Amino acid sequence: MKDERGRITLPLQMKRRNTRRSNWSGLRVLLHFSAFILGCALGFAVGAQQYPVRPVRVIVNFPPGAGVDITTRLVTAKLSEALGQQFLVDNRAGAAGNIGIELASRAAPDGYTLLAATAAAAVSQTVFPKIPFDLVRDFAPVSMMASAPFVLAVHPSVQAKTLAELLALAKAKPGQLSYATPGTGSSPHLAGELLKMLSGTSMLHVPYKGMVPAATDVMGGNVPILFGNSLVVLPAARSGKLRAIAITTLRRSGVAPELPTIAESGFPGYESGTWYGLMAPVRAPREIVTRLNGAVVKAVQLADVREKLIAQGAEPIIMTPEEMGAFVRAEIAKWGKVAKAANIRLE
Fold first, then answer.
1. Residues 123, 116, 227, CA angle at the centre, nearest 5°?
2. DSSP assignment letter at 345
3. Predicted local confidence at residue 63, as pLDDT
4. DSSP characters for 240-275?
5. What pLDDT is attached to residue 312?
6. What is the dihedral angle through the alpha carbons of 198, 204, 207, 211, rounded to the nearest 10 degrees?
7. C-beta atoms surrounding 200 within 10 Å
8. Beta pairing class for 273-281 and 113-118
């Protein structure tokens, strides 16, 4: 048919049929899309309920024997039992722990790669301006596992049994006494720098590639002083290989109640230490994060886990993912101020 201008037109009935056909096609597309979205949502929900269906890799960014390694292996053994799949520790040390963190940040956010994060990760955010990851932006907090204070210890040959005596020795020999830590920019390094600033002493920092080699060299008498986490230092002190001088908790710790704190030894408010927690790459399914959090909380509350942690110098910690996120942000801010005051900035 043609209109008065000669244009071809369709009969009204055909127009209505085409309109109905077009509407039906649009409706079918909408229904298919809705079914797809619903299927994805149900798939994620079922996947979270069944998680894990294969082994889970847990990246530890320090060498075997480090405090985070000891704690993570203890907790992941319980996760394997509770969730029916192996949680495999993968040690990726180097660059003050940054190699392992970067590797974890690039993993798929599916819950099958986790990072055993420590206070060192928070410190890295401020002392390494060019690191290719952001602990807050690139990770989803899962659960804390434990915390461990640092212990200031010396080789048994050092003529100091108290913090006051050690600082007097340092002032009498400015720049001659040296202290070992797991590395430049590590949490024990900043703890040592904070003590130096507060006490007005000058001591030489000797960085190592990890807590174990640092402790080994001090036990061998090559370096007189050690700032290290309690899981490594306390066993050595109790065996007589080191002499523990003070602990870095604000109040005396249940892991070593016999040790005076640095705070009570003339430096009120002094507090430092490390912590161990699990994080997942950002955008990991919320259901999986919640499931993991519940499993970790149950694991660290088990009597044998608590006893082993305390015996080794750590204390179990329970936090929700939200609480852990707030805690990590506070840690980054706190140690950022210390790093700036001590002029610690690494490439």
1. 50
2. -
3. 86
4. TSSEEEEE-SSS--TT-TTSPBTTTTT-TT---EEE
5. 80
6. -60
7. 10
8. antiparallel
Helices (H), the chain: 12-50, 67-83, 98-105, 119-127, 163-172, 187-199, 211-219, 230-238, 286-301, 303-312, 321-341
Q: How many residues does the chain have?
A: 347
> In degrees, to the nearest 5, what angle opens at C-alpha 315 toward C-alphas 205 and 140?
85
What are the two backbone dihedrals, phi and then psi, of residue 188, each rounded to the nearest 5 degrees? Answer: -60, -30
pLDDT of residue 44: 46
Q: CA-to-CA distance for 226 and 242, rounded, in angstroms? A: 9
Query: Dihedral through CA 212, CA 213, CA 217, CA 223, nearest 10?
Result: -90
Contact 158, 243 (CB under 8 A): yes
- pLDDT in the model for residue 35: 46
- Tokens 């960014």 label which residue? 61
Distance CA 110, CA 54 (A): 11
Task: Give the phi and the psi of residue 137 in degrees, each rounded to 5.
Answer: -75, -35
Separation between Cα atoms, residue 30 and residue 287, nearest integer Å = 27
pLDDT tens digits, residue range 146-175?
998 999 999 999 999 999 999 999 999 999
Residue pair 245/161 in contact (Cβ under 8 Å)? The answer is yes
DSSP state of 343: T
pTM: 0.76
Q: Which residue has the tokens 């798929």?
A: 108
Q: What is the pLDDT of residue 39?
A: 47
Residue for token digits 């002392």? 127
CA gap 91, 173 in Å, rounded: 39
DSSP state of 11: -
Low-confidence ranges of the chain (pLDDT < 70): 1-48, 347
Query: Do 146 and 275 form a contact (C-beta atoms < 8 A)?
Result: yes
CA atoms of 203 and 54, how far apart (whole Å) = 50
**pLDDT at 184 (0 to 100):** 85
Q: What is the DSSP string of 13-63?
A: HHHHHHHHHHHHHHHHHHHHHHHHHHHHHHHHHHHHHH--SS-EEEEESS-
